Amino acid sequence: MAVSQGIGDVQGMTCQLFAVCFGASEPLVLARFWSGVLGWEMVDDPDDGVTLLPSDDTGFRIRFLPSQEPKAVQNRMHFDLTSTSLEDQQQTVTRALGLGGRHIDIGQLPEEGHVVLADPEGNEFCVVGPGNSFLADCGFIGALACDGSQEVGYFWSEALGWPLVWDQDQETAIRSPHGGPKITWGGPPVAPKTGRDRLSFDLAPPVHGDRQAEVDRLLSLGAKRIDSGQGEGSRVELADPDGNEFSVLTPQ
């Protein structure tokens, strides 16, 4: 399936990945943790939450918004943080633990070379060891690693105008032409969806873009509408082909 055809033509008009959004019981606590881990600046968020602004070429913000839904299952999306050396990896782990993180066991093997941690609200993330060739030219956030199908990888490639950088054995990955983290999907088996995702994408059309036109385009690519359908307010809520919720904001 050729998903990259025409990407250069639509790059200027497609939605940008404006933010990765965490649903949080205590947005400020979670924001302070991730600000300390990443070294990103905290600012107030217009939706009663907290936003982190990137200090590198990541290309998107991280938002922490109030949520009453407790975490019940492993997230479908997590950050893979990179390391330049074993010492650097240990420093990241130590910093995260000092900020309120903890070690967790999700079945990882010692030889896999990464350390699996959870933030103060139980959201999983990995600190990858040095020498990972797949993430070699990425920044500190090397990837957003997702549980998802090949179809959803194709969908997000078209939705964001990001070309595929991996498509093998039903595993897919995309990356912005401007660099920054990769977004990866591990292929089958995909765990069944139970409840609302705690991590989701916020998309936004460019400043002079047309949100309704973008919503229509995303629906034509395979998204489904899951809000009231009125399209009023600051966001329109959709779901991708795997059922993951995401929002289309007003032009930014």
Automatic annotation (TrEMBL):
Domain VOC: 137-251
Domain of life: Bacteria
Pfam families for this protein: Glyoxalase_6
Keywords carried by this UniProt record: Lyase
SUPFAM superfamilies: Glyoxalase/Bleomycin resistance protein/Dihydroxybiphenyl dioxygenase (SSF54593)
PROSITE patterns per UniProt: VOC
InterPro entries: Glyas_Bleomycin-R_OHBP_Dase, Glyoxalase_6, VOC_core
Annotated segments matching region Disordered: 226-252
Molecular function terms, GO-annotated: lyase activity
Name the UniProt record assigns to this protein: Enzyme related to lactoylglutathione lyase
Species annotation: Streptomyces umbrinus
